[in-house]
Amino acid sequence: MSLLTKDLLASSRSFTAAAPVQREIKWYVTDDEGNETELSATVYVRKKSFATVNTEAKFQANDGVMVARICASIVNEQGQPLFTPEDLMGNSGRELADDEVEHGPICESLGMALLAAIWEVNGLSKKPDPKRSLKKTNSGANSSSQESAAKQ
User: Which of 5, 17, 1 shows the shortest CA–CA distance to 123?
Assistant: First the structure.
């Protein structure tokens, strides 16, 4: 077993990348007549780290898991959060600053596109990495119900 050092963390890739990852997203908006328009944009996603877990925890109790995940993970080029919960969930009913415009929540399509970008950057849209899965241990017992039934 190795002694935990910063060199060990660096060589084992235990530090996540500092720079956010760029992704293109697409989402759809529907006008009052029911016409759908596709929109697209570039977003920056902070790779999942202890910092994102910490930021998510700040928002999660009041705003829910998905809002917290977007607020912690969607950032600008410098890695600073792009959204507040009010940006995502709407700011109606509260006093607004002079430069703010009253708005409702973001559309479902945009929310799902942001979450998909987060999942993609963090490898959640791919098959599990077999190197990261738990190793199987042989306890000497077979838990297969058909084989167990046949032996009895």
Answer: 17
Mean confidence (pLDDT) of the chain: 82
99 vs 152: which has the higher pLDDT = 99
* In the block, residue with structure tokens 């167990």: 148
Q: Which residue has the tokens 């042989």?
A: 138
Better-scored residue on pLDDT, 145 or 94:
94
Instruction: Calculate helix-pair angle for 50-63, 65-73, nearest 10 degrees.
Output: 140
Beta-carbon contacts of 19 under 8 Å, excluding residues fewer than 6 positions away, are 79
Stated as kind and residue range, the H or E segment containing 6 is helix 6-11
Q: Distance of CA 93 to CAs 86, 96, 99, 101, Å? A: 11, 9, 16, 12
Name the token pair of 149. 């039934």
